[in-house]
Amino acid sequence: MIRFQRIGRTNDAAFRIAVLEKERAAQSNRIVAKLGSYNPRTKALQLDAEAVKGWIAKGAQPTGTVHNLLVSKGIIEGKKVNVLPKKTVAKKEEPVAEAAPAAAPAAEAAPEPEAAPAETPAA
């Protein structure tokens, strides 16, 4: 897998673009190959494009963020991938408020028939 490996100081992140086995954590130093580096503050990208294409040809899959970076720099072709999580839609309170008044008249009508049969057996 082609992924970012975080390097740099606290609050000043820089990333190494490395090939790792998918099961390995990015923090581990067991990288297979170093392909380049990326600094998001300065947008500086140093990358061996031929090595990236070679690893992709061998079956290495880039993560979503690395894929988008490679597409924007023109190293690989394709569409960018949405890497942001899906937003959960909050339920609106308005439909519930409209349903409550409609249920109220039905509730008022229901006790009347129930009260009449209750009086009949008692009488």
In total, the number of strands is 4
Over all CA atoms, what is the radius of gyration? 31 Å
What spatial order of strands do you see in the largest sheet?
1-2-3-4
Distance between the terminal alpha carbons, to the nearest Å? 83 Å
CATH class of the domain at 2-72: Alpha Beta
Determine the mean pLDDT: 81
What does the main sheet amount to? 4 strands, antiparallel
Helix coverage percent of residues? 25-40%
Total of DSSP H or I helical runs spanning 4+ residues: 4
**Order of helix and strand elements from N to C terminus:** EEEEHHHH
> CATH-wise, what's the superfamily of the domain at 2-72?
Ribosomal protein S16
Q: What is the CATH architecture term of the domain at 2-72?
A: 2-Layer Sandwich
Show unreliable segments: none
Structural class by sheet pairing and helices:
alpha+beta
- Shape, please? elongated
- Stated plainly, the CATH topology of the domain at 2-72 is called S16 Ribosomal Protein, Chain: A
Fraction in beta strands: 15-25%
